[in-house]
Amino acid sequence: MLIPLRAAGALSAFLLITAIVQGQPARGMAATVTVQATDRDTFVPATITVHVGDTLRWINASQQIHTITDDVRRAAYAGDALLPAGAAPFHSGYLKPGAVFEHTFSVAGAYHYFCIPHEGLGMLGSVVVLPAGSSTGVAPAASPRATDATATSTAEQVVADPVAFPSPVFVTLQRTGAIEAFPQQIVWGGFPQAHYISSGPGGGVLLIGGFQNGMAYLADGKNGARLAAFSLGGLIQGVKIDPQGHYGLVVDAGLSRVAVIDLKARKLVRMIPVGKTPHNVTFAPNGSRAYVTIQGGRAIDVIDMGTLAVKRVIELPNVNGPHNIDLAPDFKTAWVRSYGQPDRAGEAVEVNLRSGRILHDSTVGLYHGGIDIRPLGSYVFTSNIGANDVDVLNPQSGLVTDSIKVGPGPHGIRESADGKWLYVATTKANTLVVIDTKTLSIVQTIPLKGINPFWIAVVGNE
Known about the structure:
By secondary structure, the protein is mainly β. Helices cover 3% and strands 45% of the residues. It folds into 2 domains: 2-142, Sandwich (Immunoglobulin-like); 149-458, YVTN repeat-like/Quinoprotein amine dehydrogenase (Methylamine Dehydrogenase, Chain H). The chain has 1 helix and 38 strands. It is globular. The protein starts with a strand and ends with a strand.
């Protein structure tokens, strides 16, 4: 049952009172217990015990869309949905911020549920329902993904064609906490929640964000050795190394700031306040400026790398959540992918970096994704994580001219330095798809050796 929010103030008070008072009341009466869906893509608490007849109330206490889903037909991963015999599946639909969903349990047993948009990121919950009046009797069934930090793909091994990898390519395996390096197909562990990744000049050093754990890591791009770790707090999103290899920037969406790391000294040197809920970052070719997408503020913040401060804000009032970004080959414009709703089309927008004028505003596939401009400038590619395809845009007209089916949940997307190959990471199929950019045809689909491939770094196309 979906319950609309009547007032934001009432919700805040309700959250506080419910969290403190309700808990687990004395048996003999039906209880209502509250779980929050958060901006960190987690359920709090993640595991809860109730009794037959009790009602669980989920509140979307975040600023994004979530679902409460226990239906094996909708799950991308085995074990993320689990129901005891005789229990009916449930699904909240897409919950906007502040919305409430309730479900009353009538069958004892173990339940696993998930959020559809963020299942690949590990947004999972468990409920143990005991018989009415009892305090024991049902043991929770372990999800196959509960221990997947060391999991590897059991699919038949496909050897990467070295011709399609003219320079090293690195893919983050978020749920495995690792990086897979191509063309060798070697997995380097030791990077919990590896999310976004950037390669320095020549691929000698890698910068990796740790997503929900608030960490950032430096790694040797030749052997995967971890060189340094930085505890930054917050919710870590995009990372980028400047073209000269001097600084690395780490976007902290939770605390609305950008961390500056001196790569040679391996030292955190500055925290730069930026707009609300920043997401990703890229550099001007000479490294003098950095462009930060401000997802919560509909803008791009421009950082002066000489003063390490925001020097200008490019307002994008009509762009729904500026998300990922890439610069055009002439470096005068940027293409920005929006962060929309899971069941709605997204936007790919071209903006003039000097004037702030929108040159193209194109409708693309579902939800959000990565965006990459071919080094030769003939195509713009954007992935659609809410679907199974990559859209191909003509940068002159802004029109979508083709769509390439790559598999469920594509997100990370990057071209080879020579522009001949496009790499796409599918978060739900756990594959790296290689596309010939001349024919726009898939030449290889490579099963990865870990779970939830999220982002891609390519040496020579930083």
